[in-house]
């Protein structure tokens, strides 16, 4: 079976990008990582791409035009801190996915990212947090939910310890969910993500 092509967007250390890249090297992977797009050319993600021979594209006003020519099967956000512009959303409808470190719709939206999300969860006193993989649309963190994973919030948790524990599961599940989406047909109906496994 011919592998699908994905392009990853990342701004930070690149741990999530690295997990996706590592998964793509598996014999049973359904995808290849064609390129990395980053708005921070000195980031860890860019270093990982260089070390693995992955094409690097600097994020700017030309990015939508470049990606339209490349025609990836999916765009995967992996710690990308910019809001995706409308022209890119229009070019890849329901084909841009993101991972957010909370059980959306809780602790999502503008201003909620990184350690801020985990601090808000602990300050609120929730018993469970986790992460959400979702389709990206014009509303920040409001796209159709693809997958969620709940993690207990412990009495002794700090924002940092909660973040570390959740992130381990993110690295485990995100590549597998991407794989499943690319191997199977899916559709969006009334803001619900429906995966056809048959």
UniProtKB/TrEMBL annotation:
Q: In which pathway does it act?
A: Purine metabolism; IMP biosynthesis via de novo pathway; N(2)-formyl-N(1)-(5-phospho-D-ribosyl)glycinamide from N(1)-(5-phospho-D-ribosyl)glycinamide (10-formyl THF route): step 1/1
Question: In this protein, which residues make up the domain named Formyl transferase N-terminal?
Answer: 5-178
Q: Which GO terms describe its molecular function?
A: phosphoribosylglycinamide formyltransferase activity
BP GO annotations: 'de novo' IMP biosynthetic process
Q: Which GO terms describe its cellular component?
A: cytosol
State the source organism's domain of life. Answer: Archaea
Checking HAMAP family in the record gives: PurN
Under what name is this protein listed? Answer: phosphoribosylglycinamide formyltransferase 1
Species: Cuniculiplasma divulgatum
